[in-house]
Give the backbone structure.
Amino acid sequence: MKALSITYEQYDTAQDLRKDIQSLALKAQEAAEKAYAPYSKFHVGCAISLENGTIVTGNNQENVAYPSGLCAERVAIFSASATLPGEKIKSIFIRAFSKKFMVNQPISPCGSCRQVLLEYQMLQKDQPIPIYMQGASGPILMINDIRDLLPFCFFEEKLNEGEMIKAEENSPLTL
């Protein structure tokens, strides 16, 4: 047996954060309030601070055909990449609240968002991207590197390794 552990920071209130991260938290809250969540009533906002000082926000966008919606994190990061390609990400703040129940624990990104965030981190020469997470109330968690949320991650080098093995063996890839 082996164990896996991660390191994270916990803050009791936004006042315990640096001023720039407090501003990012506010932008994430504003984005969550504008989310299109008529079905789940679960609002998520994401604010991304870029190296040039720009803050890009996104929120969850639902659709009656649930798979057609998109999470706040991907809305924000795709928007940042589309409008400011190549600009490095300094930090990300995710906030969530529900109109059905109290969200008093941090909400972390789903698996799809974790994979997307990892790829953007890899694009910036694997410079870690701190991710702050908070519910409507309660503590704020900060993970310093997306890989801490996605251990055993899948990335381009793994894809290339598979192609090399397949080409060398001239047979289907088997694990």
Observations:
- Residues 4 and 61 are 33 Å apart (CA to CA).
- The longest strand covers residues 89-98.
- The chain has one domain: 8-148.
